[in-house]
Amino acid sequence: MARTRFAPDRGLTSRMVTTMFFIGLLYVVVVGALVVLLKGAWIVVLLISGAMFVAQFWFSDRIAAFSMGAREVTPEQAPELHGAVDRLCALADMPKPRVAVAESDVPNAFATGRNQKNAMVCATTGLLRRLEPEELEGVLAHELSHVAHRDVAVMTIASFLGVLAGIITRAALWSGVGRNSRDNNAAIAVLVVTLVSAVVYAVSFLLTRLLSRYRELSADRAAAILTGRPSALAAALTKVTGQMAQIPTRDLRKAEPFNAFFFAPAFSKESFGRLLSSHPTLEQRLEQLGRISAQLGRP
């Protein structure tokens, strides 16, 4: 990680390396299986897989930001938000990322970007309206720590790998297997490729969920130590989580697909997402902040 004043986390670094290794290995397995099974379309498979890998590395952060409705704002348009980011970046000794706002009543924030130079930090209008200045700084410090630790880049890339496996599989089957539908091996090829794709998606999903829960605790810890105000972050967590229950179900459903990137998860009433949540529980996060508060000698 680039040198900043955010507390380093070797546990997070080792988990990121492990996650990317296994997901990359799965990606290679999918491409290899398609090349072997779809001999007539191996060039198409390699071209699509290569193009998708390059696209996800260079553009996945922009796609994620666009999907979540992030709109970059100037200091004149959002002076308080820019002021908070300026103070935190000076405190952390890190480059200032782009600052954005998302028009959503769901109180949340997220960060995107493959490195510190092209990172973006975004807060929703619902978050800006509900939090006090110290609470907002705690949330923004949490998001900036994701950028400093580079785990936001790992999550962005890893989250797209499972989706890409499905896209590559469908494209290869459409271009190769369809022509050889009379071949006795075609049905077996379709079955094997489908099973491999399903396994890759399931494993990549579980790996990213495990990494996501740890990285949220790591970001809470780094933000609390940097600002020296774990109580402010705890207050923001409590307030944001409590306000989720008052958000219309329709808005929560729109936000749910992006929970892995958010400061706090959004769950609709009929959601089963809590079973495989991208975040640790509120109790776990508050307990950790309580311990840090005690270590810092603050109530």
TrEMBL record:
Positions of the catalytic residues: 143
Membrane disposition: Multi-pass membrane protein
UniProt-annotated location(s): Cell membrane
Keyword Glycoprotein recorded: no
Residues annotated to bind Zn(2+): 142, 146, 216
One Pfam entry name: Peptidase_M48
The keyword ATP-binding is annotated on this UniProt entry: no
Gene Ontology annotations for the cellular component aspect, listed alphabetically: plasma membrane
Cofactor requirements of the protein: Zn(2+)
Similarity comment: family membership: Belongs to the peptidase M48B family.
UniProt protein name: Protease HtpX homolog
Organism taxonomic ancestry: Bacteria, Bacillati, Actinomycetota, Actinomycetes, Kitasatosporales
Primary gene name: htpX1
